[in-house]
């Protein structure tokens, strides 16, 4: 039995893709939306082209964000919120 190797719990973070954003949306706008909906997020990266990636602390936070925000009318646009799939993992 090898006890020298300490097992560290994996860092669990869930990343969301948020699409169909109005073009003028910035990080502060999205952070405010998450606050207003009582959702927690740690990192927001808004990309040109009307989409963003948001890191949630755990899977339950991500699930709540999807439930509350997918289809949510944000400044006239219905948002698309779904789990972000890493491009490096092909199935």
Based on the model shown, name its key terms.
RRM_dom, two-stranded antiparallel ribbon, 27% strand, 91 residues, RRM domain-containing protein, single chain
What report would you give on this structure?
One of its GO terms (molecular function) is RNA binding. This is RRM domain-containing protein. It comes from Cryptolaemus montrouzieri. It holds the Pfam family RRM_1. It is a single chain. With 91 residues, this protein is of the alpha+beta class. The protein has 2 helices and 6 strands. The protein has helices at residues 27-36, 59-69; strands at residues 14-19, 43-47, 51-56, 73-74, 77-78, 80-83. Strands 2-3-1-6 form a 4-stranded antiparallel β-sheet. A hairpin with a 3-residue loop joins strand 2 (43-47) and strand 3.
Q: What is the string of helix and strand elements?
A: EHEEHEEE
CA radius of gyration is 16 Å
Largest sheet: 4 strands, antiparallel
Overall number of strands: 6
Q: Helices and strands: which structural class?
A: alpha+beta
| Overall mean confidence score, pLDDT | 87
Distance between the termini: 35 Å
What proportion of the residues is helical, as a percent range?
10-25%
User: Which range does the strand content fall in?
Assistant: 25-35%
Counting DSSP H or I runs of 4 or more residues, the number of helices is 2
List low-pLDDT spans. Answer: none
Approximate shape: globular
Pfam family, one: RRM_1
InterPro entries: Euk_RNA-bind_prot (IPR050502), Nucleotide-bd_a/b_plait_sf (IPR012677), RBD_domain_sf (IPR035979), RRM_dom (IPR000504)
Domain RRM: 14-86
Organism: Cryptolaemus montrouzieri
């Amino acid at each position: 039995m090898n006890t020298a190797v300490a097992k560290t719990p994996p860092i669990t973070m869930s990343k969301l893709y948020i699409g169909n954003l109005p073009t003028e949306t910035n990080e502060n706008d999205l952070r405010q939306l998450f606050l207003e909906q009582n959702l927690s997020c740690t990192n927001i990266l808004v990309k040109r082209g009307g989409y963003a990636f948001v890191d949630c602390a755990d899977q339950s936070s991500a699930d709540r964000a999807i439930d509350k925000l997918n289809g949510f009318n944000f400044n006239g646009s219905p948002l698309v919120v779904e789990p972000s799939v890493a491009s490096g993992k092909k199935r």
